[in-house]
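Lesson 9: reading folded outputs for more than one chain in a single document. The general rule is that every protein is listed as its sequence immediately followed by its structure tokens, and records are never interleaved. Here is the first one.
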Amino acid sequence: MRQVAILSGKGGTGKTSVAASLAALAGRAVIADCDVEASNMPLLLHPEVGERRDFETRRAEIDPESCLRCGLCVEECRFDAISDFKVDHVKCEGCGVCAYICPTGAARLRPRVSGYLYVSETRFPLWTPMPRRSTAR
């Protein structure tokens, strides 16, 4: 199985256009647009969505009733997402350090739906007849 990854840290470089062009040329391919901020592959491939699944991540919460205010979570959070024993959900990455280190279990991770995964069909079917290769050498 051959795999091709097209990546860049900069937006607007044409990654999606190159990937869509390769998809059009490929006989049979599995294509995943893994851009979490702006998946643009659907703009070019016009998929028909067959299935939508929830994509869950975790979010930290601190129960003020059981919190001792010991400061371990504040001290250990590498994202500086906890101040005054409240979680800033924009900064929190859901890593779980706070829940792991909390002596009372006041810091917990809760699942939340943060997006959706789509299984789709395009005009580029996954299973197309492939020409047989000659085995003679």
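And here is the second record, again sequence then tokens.
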Amino acid sequence: LQPDELQSGTFTVTNIGSLGSTMGTPIITQPQVGILATGAIKKRPVVIEDDDLGDIIAVRHIMYLSLSYDHRIIDGAMGASFLQKVVAELEDHDPEEEV
């Protein structure tokens, strides 16, 4: 994107994982109110809660998300709620389904 293409934006999604970075702190471009950074998707060991087996360790694909926002516009509860909804959409996404 060119600088003039960012002038009327209100929110940015940036992919810091495209070069292998797992996480970072995205900086808001004023006058936007927020920015979401996506890290690289990597295999990691995670604890899975299973009703029959209890807690088990499994290897899963993990991607970290980092959200920065202007606290004059968005409070912490709203930011956390937004991030939870993004996570739910990503976790429930069917890769075979067209977006």
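What the second record shows: The chain has a mean pLDDT of 92.
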